From TrEMBL:
SUPFAM superfamilies for the chain: C-type lectin-like
InterPro entries: C-type_lectin-like, C-type_lectin-like/link_sf, C-type_lectin_CS, CTDL_fold
Signal peptide (from-to): 1-24
Keyword terms: Amyloid, Disulfide bond, Prion, Signal
Protein name: Prion-like-(Q/N-rich) domain-bearing protein 25 isoform X2
SMART domains reported for this sequence: CLECT
UniProt keyword Ribonucleoprotein present: no
Domain C-type lectin: 710-830
Domain of life: Eukaryota
Positions of the UniProt region annotated as Disordered: 96-140
Length: 845
């Protein structure tokens, strides 16, 4: 009966619960509901076997005749059809509704093959087994396997049990009630406190369910059960984050640095100090902070030890960190020779911390036992002298005295380094000599060098004039044989009893003893230099001492003499052609002396641009004409003479011009010219606007006797009040038109012309007119051209032209610096200027 029930269960539930295809032999089985599909792995046809009301039927899309051939499962399943039908009928009766109606409840099915009930499953106490149909089973129910009975899958086990895949027995799952570990599935254990099957330490768990054994929790990082503080453990992985498995007690405890309440919460060898676990002496550690105060974590052995400098007692072994030992001299943990150090205070007695290697080493002069002893190392730059067994400085390394150096070496007291000792030149290389003062091989005179320490005797390392390399040469003040031995820009100068290197011109000096005999040290300069004395030869002013200049004398020889601006009291203090300027008490060039700038000339003189001679300027005092600038004349009045410009010379004001010949300063040309009525030969002798007529400067052109002429035009001023239109008519009757100023030069002439007039009305009409179509233009209503545009920037007065309506005519105002303004054309202004072409004479201005 049990085998039949199991077969029925497999057919109706087990196989039908398969959610993915299953391969059995050469066939593939899949289930949808209670439809069993079987497909040959290499064929395309499909057989559907259906279990319904205890009958198993097969069907395909093919005809019924082909079923026996195409459905081999048909014969296998139909052989069990009778047994399935009987069992199905029994189950249907047991699942019948209750008398009172309502829902169908599971019934009890007596297992006639086994008269006893499940010993540890869910029992009713009367030997009957409860059948739980489950969510994915059909309504066919049968007996279930009890606790610790054999099973092949969980569906065979009673409710609350699962089939242990390892043991093939029905057992309690996670959180199931238990008495012993054998009640629980293989990956759980029976928790003593809760009497439930729980996951052990290290097992996977769910973060949302309490599935771990007591004193443990599901770790959020690893998703495994981890022990709490004090829980049992075997390895560190059994404990929660921040805890370690204490090997002595096999419990989880706080690791060094963790929070604690007492020493019992810390791992063995630790103590709770200020609520922090600290490791005691000689106990395991990882970092310096893991150890108690006074200890350090030895990184080699990972144990808390005495640090360097800590007190210890002679004979104690392994109490200091690995790089130190207990020094019997000081009873402290100190670093021995050859081990790493930070400072000399960490090293043992009579040793120092080598700055180059950071190892405790024997200092220079300290005792050593030969170069083969690994621990007895000398500091960098020294080695153990085998003979004396003392650390000596190696050649080229710093020393304090010769006793620091090896045999055959001495300490160069200047550079503080060990160098080889010599007794004669044969011990030295080429270009070297044995210096008798230092007993060292040094570079000979004129040999190349890198510093003065390389040079022998009193020579120093100096750059040459070519700047390519430095050579050993004698400085100034040292005895010499010839000038080639002396520093650049110095010479071997003959002294009283011997030759000495002395500086030449412009050599940097401190006293005159540094300079050659014909030179002196000029200390008045920012940097004192050797300069030529007064009367000695020179090439430029830069060669001479302050207060003198390099001047070519009457014999054409350049010597240093009192030069320009040198202080003086009389002419004897200055060199000709200079005189002592009484105004400045300095040496200046005299009259007619050649010059380059006016500053070289005496007061009252200027350096003429062309002649380059010191002469009197215009208006300068003079005695006769030769003292004045070329072209000027010396005019004497009341016993005083002044240089005045003659005709055609440049001027600034009328005062610059010689008035003996009726000269005045032409405002247009800034030259001295003849005024009205002055004698002339050509038009250029006269001021702008005048003409030379009958050897006299006069006004006028044909028809306009009082007109002035410029640029081929005649200009006539009328001091008659007129509106602009009336002024235009008056000018037209005279054969001209109102003035039209078309260039800047013409505007300048009009200004100059008006300055010469005895009567200047003020506001004067011009031919300037405005219209919206053309803007400001020149307007000639009685001429053929009639209009012309402005050709230069008009000199409008500030705020003009005004944009008031009807102010369309322009004029110039002599009271406003001859600026242009605008007014109403009907306004009567005091005067106007007429203009016409000068057809009778070509302009010469």
């Amino acid at each position: 009966m049990a085998s039949q029930l199991r077969l029925l269960h497999i057919l109706t539930t087990g196989l039908c619960l398969i959610s993915s295809p299953v391969f059995l032999g050469q066939f593939q089985y899949s289930v949808s509901g209670n439809i069993i599909k079987r497909q040959a792995s290499q064929d395309e046809w499909t057989v559907k076997c259906k279990v319904h009301e205890g009958k198993v039927s097969c069907g395909t899309e093919m005809s019924t005749e082909d079923l026996s051939f195409l459905c081999p499962c048909d014969s296998e399943l139909k052989s069990l059809a009778a047994e399935v039908a009987v069992l199905q009928e029994q189950v249907s009766k047991l699942m019948a509704p209750t008398e009172g109606g309502g829902e169908v409840e599971p019934q009890k099915l007596e297992d006639k093959t086994n008269g006893s009930s499940d010993e540890s499953g869910d029992t009713a106490g009367n030997g009957e087994t409860s059948i739980d149909p489950g969510p994915n089973t059909m309504e066919v129910m049968g007996p279930k396997v009890g606790l610790k009975e054999r099973c092949s899958n969980t569906s065979e086990c009673q409710s609350g049990l699962v089939c242990d895949s390892a043991m093939r027995e029905c057992r309690r799952g996670a959180n199931g009630q238990c008495s012993t570990n054998h009640d629980c599935v293989s990956d759980t254990t029976c928790d003593i406190e809760s009497r439930e099957c729980r996951y052990g330490l290290g097992s996977s768990c769910s973060l949302t369910l309490e599935q771990c054994i007591s004193h443990a929790a599901c770790d959020t990082v690893t998703g495994t059960c981890k022990g709490h503080l004090g829980s049992h453990c075997n390895v560190d992985a059994n404990c929660a984050n921040g805890l370690l498995c204490d090997s002595a007690s096999a419990t989880c405890k706080q690791k060094p640095g963790g929070h604690c309440k007492d020493e019992m919460e810390c791992v063995s060898g630790g103590s709770c100090e200020e609520n922090v676990c600290k490791m005691k002496f000689n106990n395991r550690c990882e970092t310096l902070s893991d150890c108690q105060v006074g200890y350090v974590c030895d990184r080699e052995v990972h144990l808390c030890k005495y640090g360097v400098g800590h007190q210890c007692f002679t004979g104690q072994q392994s109490v200091c960190e690995h790089r130190a030992i207990c020094d019997s001299y000081s009873n402290r943990c100190l670093v021995p020779l050859g081990y790493r150090c930070i400072s000399s205070e960490e090293c043992m007695h009579d040793s120092v911390c080598d700055k180059e290697t950071s190892l405790c080493s024997v200092p220079i002069g300290g005792s050593c036992r030969g170069t083969t002893t690994a621990n007895n190392v000398c500091v960098t730059g020294s080695e153990c002298d085998v003979t004396s067994q003392i650390c000596r400085t190696v050649p080229g390394v710093q020393c304090m005295s010769t006793s620091d150096c090896k045999a055959e070496y001495i300490c160069d007291t200047a550079r503080k380094v060990c160098v080889r000792m010599c007794s004669d030149d044969n011990h030295c290389d080429e270009e070297q000599v044995c210096d008798q003062l230092s007993r060292q091989c040094k570079t000979a005179l004129r040999g190349t060098c890198s510093s003065s320490y390389d040079c022998s005797g009193r020579a120093g390392c100096f750059p040459q004039n070519d700047g390519l390399e430095n050579r050993c040469l004698l400085p100034v003040g040292e005895q010499c044989k010839d000038s080639s031995e002396c520093v650049w820009n110095s010479k071997c100068d003959i002294g009283l009893d011997h030759k000495t290197c002395r500086g030449m011109v412009n050599f940097t000096c401190q006293t005159s003893n540094d300079c050659a005999a014909d030179l002196e040290c000029d200390t008045r300069l920012l940097v004192s230099r050797c300069k030529a004395k007064r009367g000695n030869p020179c090439e430029t002013n830069f060669d001479c001492v302050t207060g003198t200049a390099c001047i070519k004398n009457e014999y054409q020889v350049r010597t240093c003499e009192r030069g320009f601006n040198a202080s003086c009291q009389s002419f004897t203090d200055c060199t000709r052609p200079m005189i002592c300027d009484p105004q400045t008490a300095t040496c200046k060039l005299n009259i007619k002396a050649k010059c380059e700038t006016t500053s070289q000339c005496s007061t009252g003189y200027v350096c003429a641009d062309v002649e380059k001679e010191c002469i009197r300027p215009i208006n300068g005092k003079c005695g006769d004409d030769p003292e004045c600038i070329r072209g000027a004349t010396c005019m004497v009045k009341q016993g005083l003479g002044f240089c005045k410009a003659q005709k055609g010379m440049a001027c600034s004001t009328d005062f610059d011009c010689a008035d003996l010949h009726n000269l005045t300063c032409d405002p247009m040309t800034k030259q001295c010219r003849r005024a009205l009525g002055g004698s002339c030969e050509v038009d250029r002798d006269c001021m702008t606007g005048f003409r030379c007529r009958d050897n006299s400067c006069r006004t006028g052109c044909p028809g306009w006797a009082d007109a002035m002429v410029y640029g081929g035009h005649c200009y006539l001023l009328h001091a008659i009040p007129r509106a602009q239109a009336s002024a235009q008519e008056d000018c037209a009757h005279l054969g001209g038109h109102l003035v039209a100023i078309e260039t800047q030069e013409e505007d300048n002439f009009i200004r100059a012309m008006l300055m010469l007039q005895s009567v200047r009305p003020g506001s004067l009409w011009m031919a300037l007119y405005y219209s919206e179509e053309t803007g400001w233009t020149w307007w000639y209503p009685y001429t053929s051209s009639q209009t012309s545009r402005l050709s230069f920037r008009p000199p409008w007065y500030d705020g003009y032209p005004s944009h008031v309506e009807d102010m369309n005519c322009g004029y110039l105002d002599t009271s406003r610096d001859y600026a242009w303004l605008n007014a109403r054309c009907r306004d009567r202004l005091p005067g106007f200027i007429c203009e016409k072409s000068d057809e009778s004479h070509s302009d010469t201005y």
